[in-house]
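Memo subject: From amino acid sequence to discrete backbone structure tokens
Action wanted: Derive the backbone structure tokens from the amino acid sequence.
How to read it: Take the token row as a discrete description of the fold.
Attached in line: The record itself begins immediately under this heading.
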Amino acid sequence: MVSIGAVLSRILWAAAGLACEGVEAEVVDVRTLVPLALRTIPVSVTQTQRRVVAEDASLTHGFGAEVVA
């Protein structure tokens, strides 16, 4: 799971809930857009073959759209 900003606490809560069900979730906290962790995110996706992006922003033209793209 990739997050930025205030949504991190909810991502950690979700990851803990998944762990209780036996599902391991890797959390990547980007923290800043400049510099963006351009190596961390692709490495995580390569290892897990999954990606969930969460942010508190508009539906388009936000950080999440850039990570997904």
Q: What stands out?
A: The longest strand covers residues 2-3. The chain has a mean pLDDT of 83. The radius of gyration is 12 Å.
